[in-house]
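Tip: read the tokens left to right.
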């Protein structure tokens, strides 16, 4: 069975948001290397396929990552095994194995699900040809690092065994072409257009429309020629690129090692003390914060308040630097990313005051859209004409 996938892949420090064949998968961006399968009793393969992303165990044989058996995502996080994650401010995404392993695992899982859906049976083997767009933080993105990251995927074929109980499915993943762009820049695509390629409308713009008395029929068409200062707040870094229309302005490259992850790392020691644990992973703390009904939620938020204020002030300082460099010639400051949700109560008032003072509009993306802006932009990019032209040009020069 041969498949062709388009993949928009946002490998975040905390969460992996990846569009595969139009399907959005969100998983904790962690894995762990293990020696054996966890299942002792007979588990029916069919029962695993449906929720495969939450029960993902793969064996990887790839030229670009350490071979072995891995638990991936939620299954790894809940396994109690020693976790691998992207260390905030330490790891370079283009050098570590985790983005390669987790991407191969998720692509293989969707391949198994797709064939099972169509054939109503578990296949023995699948071959997947992939076109992919992914990104590196602006502080890590150069022509050399982007090319290195691209080569790690295109160096295949990558052989992945997906474990469904005692049953195994062999998946061969071949990347036909991969383009690595600076993080935040794909968002220009998801701001302007929806999944069907029409001008974007809806509640994503409600606050913006109300604040600036925009017309009721407002759409993403508004942003097609605007100069936007992006503020993409992640776990380990915040990116501040400036775009004009769909064009990335290289002279304004700027990123800083600030984000929700640093606030979480700072709060984690106090949080563990309050809940009487010697240690707990950053992803567990993140899950507690997201779940308002969790018994530790209020304690987690209490320990976060001061560290978040510190990070918000640093982000404002970096935005000021970009505005100075651009001589305030910015139409819109657009804020999004997983860290922007946690920081909203602290950051929004500071930023609104700055924008009003400089006569700039503020678009603070609502929580339900903030995390996936990059992934949606990458998905739109990999399916678009610009990607096709880059791929065609690259193939001709080989």
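Filled-in amino acids:
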């Amino acid at each position: 069975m041969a498949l062709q996938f388009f993949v928009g892949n946002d490998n975040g420090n905390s969460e992996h948001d990846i569009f595969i064949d139009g399907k959005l998968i969100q998983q904790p961006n962690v894995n762990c290397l293990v020696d054996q399968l966890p299942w002792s009793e007979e588990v029916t393969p069919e029962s695993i396929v449906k929720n495969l992303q939450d029960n993902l165990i793969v064996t990887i044989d790839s030229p670009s990552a350490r071979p072995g058996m891995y638990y991936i995502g939620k299954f790894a996080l809940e396994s109690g095994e020693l976790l691998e994650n992207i260390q905030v401010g330490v790891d370079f995404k283009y050098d570590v194995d985790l983005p390669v392993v987790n991407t191969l695992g998720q692509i293989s899982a969707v391949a198994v699900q797709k064939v099972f859906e169509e054939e109503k049976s578990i296949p023995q083997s699948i071959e997947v040809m992939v076109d992919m767009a992914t990104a590196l933080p602006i502080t890590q993105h150069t022509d050399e690092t982007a090319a290195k990251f691209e080569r790690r995927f295109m160096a295949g074929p990558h052989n992945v065994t997906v474990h469904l109980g005692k049953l195994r499915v062999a998946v061969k993943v071949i990347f036909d072409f991969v383009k690595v762009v600076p993080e935040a820049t794909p968002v220009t695509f998801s701001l302007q257009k929806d999944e069907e390629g029409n001008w974007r409308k809806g509640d994503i713009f409600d606050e913006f429309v109300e604040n600036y008395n925009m017309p009721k029929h407002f759409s993403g068409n508004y942003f097609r020629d605007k100069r936007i200062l992006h503020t993409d707040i992640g776990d380990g870094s915040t990116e501040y690129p400036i775009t004009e229309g769909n064009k990335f302005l290289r002279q304004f490259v700027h990123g800083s090692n600030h984000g929700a992850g640093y606030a979480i790392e700072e709060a984690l020691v106090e949080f563990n003390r309050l809940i009487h644990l010697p240690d707990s992973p950053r992803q567990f703390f993140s899950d507690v914060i997201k779940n308002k009904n969790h018994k530790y939620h209020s304690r987690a938020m209490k320990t976060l308040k001061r560290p978040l204020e510190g990070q918000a002030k640093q982000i404002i300082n970096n935005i000021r630097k970009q505005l100075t460099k651009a001589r305030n010639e910015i139409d819109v400051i657009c804020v999004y990313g997983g860290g922007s949700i946690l920081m909203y109560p602290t950051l929004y008032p500071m930023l609104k005051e700055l924008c009003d003072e400089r006569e700039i509009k503020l678009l603070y993306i609502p929580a339900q859209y903030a995390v996936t802006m990059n992934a949606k932009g990458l998905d739109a990019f990999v399916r678009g004409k610009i990607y096709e032209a880059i791929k065609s040009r690259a193939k001709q020069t080989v």
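Residues 187-374 form a domain with the Nucleotidyltransferase; domain 5 fold (CATH 3.30.420.40). The chain has a mean pLDDT of 91.
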